[in-house]
């Protein structure tokens, strides 16, 4: 604990290219790029699967397979494969981003497709009866109803990215993982603990940000429905 306090009390750790603000910035940069790419891939695919019902088994199998991938081993393999293709620092950056994207896709994909599939059936039928086209049903009914699960999936993906982005330090990239890797190399356990604590703080701040975003974007009616479902599920059966 004393080493952790000394690390944060040292002004040198708060400035320069190896300072805490800079490394948090790099960590967030890698994380946000990976999340953006994962959203671009997983959301359209999840909407298609959820709306049409096609490819559910394939998507479920792919999501489970991606979740089972060993992060560090995959990163090293991808770096080795990418080395002949790049002559700059992209030889390390691109594989790290790719691995983070692969880890983020399952949560977003599952949240999107499940959210659309579980949209209120009566609302969907009512919209169809009013003459809505399939695209209007999707954009005006299913997607708004799916928003809570979609945000939950994105939140889970972001937290996984932030916690896993520390492995980027294994291939010499910047970020909070450097404190853990460099601290281990120098037997500086205070620095290692500080790196882990900073990752936890960043993840907590992002979690609170997603909770706030959910409150601002999800319809109050959907939030009330979710609460009623939780109360019903937790109620004891009548005797």
The helix-and-strand class reads mainly alpha
In DSSP terms, counting alpha (H) and pi (I) runs of 4 or more, how many helices?
10
Based on CA atoms alone, the radius of gyration comes out at: 22 Å
Assembly state here?
single chain
Number of strands: 0
- Overall average residue pLDDT: 81
Give me some keywords for this one.
single chain; 239 residues; mainly alpha; elongated
Describe the structure.
Helix 4 (71-82) crosses helix 5 and helix 7 (134-164) packs antiparallel against helix 9 (189-217). Helices cover 78% and strands 0% of the residues. It has helices spanning 2-9, 20-52, 56-67, 71-82, 90-117, 121-129, 134-164, 177-185, 189-217, 220-234. Mean pLDDT is 81; it is low at 228-239. By secondary structure, the protein is mainly α. It is built from ten helices and no strands. The chain starts with a helix and ends in a 5-residue tail after the last helix.
Topology, pairings included?
Elements: H1 2-9, H2 20-52, H3 56-67, H4 71-82, H5 90-117, H6 121-129, H7 134-164, H8 177-185, H9 189-217, H10 220-234
Helix pairs in contact: 1-9, 2-5, 2-7, 3-5, 4-5, 5-7, 6-7, 7-9, 8-9
What does this entry show, briefly?
The protein is an all-alpha fold. The protein has 10 helices and no strands.
